[in-house]
Amino acid sequence: MARPIKDTPVVTGEDARRLTEAMENVQPLTKKEREEQRKAYELFKSRATFPMP
Asked: What does pTM read for this prediction?
């Protein structure tokens, strides 16, 4: 039987401030960054030995 999943700890202090700031200031990816990520994804997908959609 599987072990129970523990509750996720609450983020507090400086970590919480940085997380909140990062969530409020999301910058969209440039076309170049998006293309680089797409190429990396396709490379990993081509090398995968398990079924991927």
From this structure: 0.52
